[in-house]
C-alpha cells in the first residue's frame, strides 16, 4: 500500500478543462460536492489576517470573508484531546516550546497563541490578538455546530494513535455524523493514505481528500489516480505542482481538485483557468473577489 502517490512521469497532452463552468455556480450553490461549484477554503481560518487556528481567525473567515469552509489541522494532546494546530510542536504559533503530544490540554490552554502573529505580521497586528488561546475541536464545534462547513486534516496521524477514532467520536457527539450533515459539510483530508483508509473503514460516509506535495502531483499516473478514487472524492495537491495537463487528467475522472495554498490573485486565476474546483487560501476575500470578477467577464 502506497504512502505517497505517483512516481512516473506524466506523458501526453490532455485537453484542459476551462473556467466556463463558473456559470453553473448559481444552481449548484448549495451542493458543496458538485464539481461545477468552486469552493473557497479558509486555510487555517483567515490566517493571512489573524493568528492561524484561533477562534478569531475562524470567525473572520466565516463571517466577514465569507469562505465556504473553515480548514482545521488537528494535533492531539498528551491527554488525548484534539486541538487545532498545524505544527507538531507549539513553538512557532505560541509562546511555549515542546511537542503537543507531550503536553496536556490544560498546559496548552495556558499558552498565548496570538502574540507571535503581531510580531510576524506588523501590518495586520492587533492588540486583541495577544493572549488568544489554542482551540479544541470541541470548542470549534460548540461555536459553529451545523452553521459552518469544516475541512479537517488529520496531521501526523502516525504520532497520535487513536486520532481518527477521536475525530469521529467528536463529530458524532456534536451531531455532525456523516448521516446527519449535508453532503460535503464535513470533509476529511490527509497526506496519510493510511489515515484516510482508517477513516473510511470506521465511517464510509465522510468525503475524503488525498493531500499531496508538488513533486507527487507533477508525476501522478492514471494508476495512482485509480487507487485514490477507490477511497477519496478529491485531491488536495500543492498548487505549485499543477499544470493544465495534470489538472485535466484529474478532473476528467470527476475527482474534486482543491489545491493549497493559493494566496496571490494571479495564481488563483490560473488555477481557475486550469479547472480546479476550489482552493485553500489564507485570503478568502481575495478569492471571492477573483470569482466575482470572473463571473462578470
Ligand atoms: O490541508 C491543505 C493544506 O493545508 C496542506 O498543507 O501544511 O498547510 O496543512 P498544510
Ligand atoms: Ca492543512
Q: How would you sum up this structure, described in words?
A:
The longest helix is centred in the last third of the chain and has 13 residues, at 284-296. Helix content is 32%, strand content 13%. The chain is of the alpha/beta class. It has helices at 55-64, 105-109, 115-120, 137-144, 163-173, 193-202, 214-218, 222-229, 244-251, 265-274, 284-296, and strands spanning 39-42, 69-76, 82-84, 150-154, 186-190, 208-212, 234-237, 256-257, 278-281. The protein has 11 helices and 9 strands. The structure holds SN-glycerol-3-phosphate and calcium ion (CA).
Oligomer: single chain
Series of H and E elements: EHEEHHHEHEHEHHEHEHEH
CATH superfamily name?
Phosphatidylinositol (PI) phosphodiesterase
Query: What would CATH call the architecture?
Result: Alpha-Beta Barrel
Which band does the percent of strand residues land in?
5-15%
Radius of gyration: 19 Å
What ligands does this structure carry? SN-glycerol-3-phosphate, calcium ion
Report the total helices.
11
Termini, distance in Å? 46 Å
Kindly identify the CATH topology: TIM Barrel
Profile the largest sheet. Answer: 9 strands, mixed
General shape: globular
Number of structural units classed as domains? 1
Helical content band: 25-40%
Q: How many strand segments?
A: 9
**The CATH top-level class label:** Alpha Beta
Detail the topology: elements first, then pairings:
Layout lengths: L38 E4 L12 H10 L4 E8 L5 E3 L20 H5 L5 H6 L16 H8 L5 E5 L8 H11 L12 E5 L2 H10 L5 E5 L1 H5 L3 H8 L4 E4 L6 H8 L4 E2 L7 H10 L3 E4 L2 H13 L1
Parallel strand pairs: 1-2, 1-9, 2-4, 4-5, 5-6, 6-7, 7-8
Antiparallel strand pairs: 2-3
The structure holds SN-glycerol-3-phosphate and calcium ion.
